[in-house]
Write a structure and sequence with these properties.
This protein is of the alpha+beta class and 83 residues long. The chain is built from three helices and five strands; from the N terminus they run βαβαβαββ. The chain has one domain. 23% of the residues lie in helices and 33% in strands.
């Protein structure tokens, strides 16, 4: 397995049920406890900040798949840095 050399933070926004399987699919997790709590909230539009670690400079965020669940990656929220 390649070593994880980069971290990317990004935000997703939606008002429907949070697609928890996307955490597995994009290998990400909530940035902090407040963002984790937002995953279970319902009834209003919310933004959840997520984090993913990866071995190459390019992240693996699947924009179209988020859109298919009526959630979208927030424009200009993606920040990648080397560890």
């Amino acid at each position: 397995m390649a070593s994880l050399k980069y971290v990317t933070t990004f935000a997703v926004s939606g008002s429907s049920s949070f697609p928890t399987d996307m955490l597995r699919r994009d290998r990400c997790f909530p940035d902090n406890p407040d963002d984790a709590d937002k995953i279970n909230e319902m009834g209003f539009r919310r933004t959840v900040k997520l984090v993913t670690f990866h071995s190459t400079k390019n992240h693996n965020i699947t924009f179209g798949r988020w859109d298919s669940f009526s959630w979208s990656v927030v424009p200009n929220s993606i920040m990648t840095r080397r560890l």
